[in-house]
Amino acid sequence: WLQRAQQAENSLAVAGTRFTEIQAGQSIQRIEERFWRQGARAQRIEILAPAARRGEVLLFRAGQWIAYRPGEKEAFELPRLPLQGAQLLQIAIDLVQAGLVEAEPMGEGVVLGRACVVVRLQLVRPPALKRQPPEKRAPFPASVSLWIDKETGLILRREVALHPNAPALRTEITRLELNPFLTPELFQLPADVVVRPLAGVYRTVEEAQRAVSFPIRVPSYLPAGAELERVMVQTRGRTRVVMLHYCTPTARFTLFQAYKSPHNSFALKKRPARRDAHFWQDGDYSFGIVGNLPKGEIDKIANSLSRASRN
């Protein structure tokens, strides 16, 4: 049944709607989606709920998930999503064959009025595996239960437990269309949309520039011996924040900047001990400097940044 389900995930064209419930403690988050899938080659997901994410589109292409909102000119690469679909099944089959996961038939069930075989996959001796270092642990949840459609092999419902007997994620298809007509355009971004990394750590400003749409500003003045260690790009809400980390022989400091966003989007709630901080707005740019530098040095860096911004 696992191999049949994997073949279905890899080859069948389907569309429909589904929901995913994510449980963390007593809190349950519900996400409703419309989806289109061309086997394992391409997928499109449109978020229907919650309201804050309604209209968001996720595309899977060339092994990478991309997120964007229609009408906007930027899309963002997403980190790896939780194991699902054909990838989940391939890993499950490999681990069953290696004796690390046990596949247990759990009888039959019904989803969408369709007869299903229920299979539970469970890590063998989870407590013993948990004591192993992370790099040696099986890349699999504590248990996964699958409702596999008898007719097509499609997985119509999935429950994932990160810890034994504690389901944390449940996905269920609520409407299913088999062999729909899917155009290539459905899985493509508009031609004028630029794809950027969601976040990351870079060695140089030039490498980090691809992750943001605004020119990254660098100070024309730096303290003696200052060197750029790394550049970080983060997404906070809908704001892209760039952080340039510098070190000198006697100090370290970080230069923050964002574009068309108030500097409180990256101002620290609690100032680190023995560090000074200065935040300011200059035109469309917001800046901040945090570090164990003399105030005079921070002011010189700030003035050189403001001049660079105006130029």
Helix- and strand-based class?
alpha+beta
How confident overall, as mean pLDDT?
85
Query: What is the first-to-last residue Cα distance?
Result: 65 Å
Strand order of the largest sheet: 7-8-9-10-11-1-2-3-4-5-6-12
Order of helices and strands: HEEEEEEHEEHEEEEEHEEEEEH
- Helix percentage: 10-25%
Weakly predicted, low-confidence segments: 126-130
* Rg computed from alpha carbons, rounded to a whole number of angstroms: 25 Å
Annotation, overall tally of beta strands: 18
Query: Helix segment count?
Result: 5
Binned strand content: over 45%
Report the biggest beta sheet as strand number plus sense, adding barrel if it closes. Answer: 12 strands, mixed
Envelope shape? elongated
Task: Explain what you see.
By secondary structure, the chain is α+β, with helices and mostly antiparallel strands. Helix content is 16%, strand content 46%. The protein is built from five helices and 18 strands. The protein has helices spanning 2-11, 85-97, 126-130, 205-209, 295-310; strands at 13-24, 27-38, 42-49, 57-61, 64-68, 74-77, 101-111, 114-123, 143-149, 155-163, 166-178, 194-197, 200-202, 227-236, 239-247, 252-259, 276-282, 285-291. Strands 7-8-9-10-11-1-2-3-4-5-6-12 form a twelve-stranded mixed sheet. A six-stranded antiparallel sheet has the order 13-14-15-16-18-17. β10 and β11 form a beta hairpin. The longest helix is centred in the last third of the chain and has 16 residues, at 295-310. The radius of gyration is 25 Å and the shape is elongated. The termini are far apart. Residues 126-130 have low confidence and may be disordered.
